[in-house]
Design a protein that fits this description.
The chain has 139 residues and is mainly α. The protein folds into two domains: 65 residues, no CATH class; 46 residues. Helices cover 55% and strands 0% of the residues.
């Protein structure tokens, strides 16, 4: 572990897994981002409250933030559904998602990244049919 550069998910995986003290790693100070760690933890219902609590203390030293989370987060496998950009999204699909969720481009891309292919396809086909039928379109 000493020769590997630490990434965001190394920390969140550690909180929910082996609970190693990564504060001794030479890359800790540089790679530990309190805001991003809180953001990732807020994506799971099981750690959302903890993330909300910790975001009230933005100036806490990184070492204390890590130690608190390492102690308080359950040692359990939690799946963080972090939105990832997919390059196989058509402009039409993005537009349909924006209409369906009544949201911005960024939010639509976030939703698309969190859905399975089947969920995306269902919404896309629904919106495509709605666009083809003027009676079903919103006024």
């Amino acid at each position: 572990m000493e020769d590997k550069k630490l990434k965001l998910f190394d920390y969140t995986t550690n909180f929910c897994g082996d609970k190693t003290d990564l504060r001794k790693h030479p890359d800790f100070v540089k790679s530990y981002d309190i805001f991003m760690i809180n953001k990732v933890l807020s994506m799971s219902p099981r750690t959302c409250g903890i993330a909300m609590f910790m975001s009230q203390y933005p100036d806490i030293p990184k070492e204390q933030h890590f130690a608190f989370l390492n102690a308080i987060v359950d040692r359990d496998q939690i799946f963080f559904n972090y939105a990832k950009r997919s390059d196989d999204i058509s402009a039409e699909e993005i537009q349909y998602f924006q209409e369906y969720f009544e949201c911005s481009l960024g939010r639509a891309l976030e939703y698309i990244g969190m859905m399975s292919e089947k969920q995306r396809s269902t919404i896309f086909e629904t919106m495509k049919r709605r666009a083809a039928d003027p009676k079903k379109r919103k006024a």
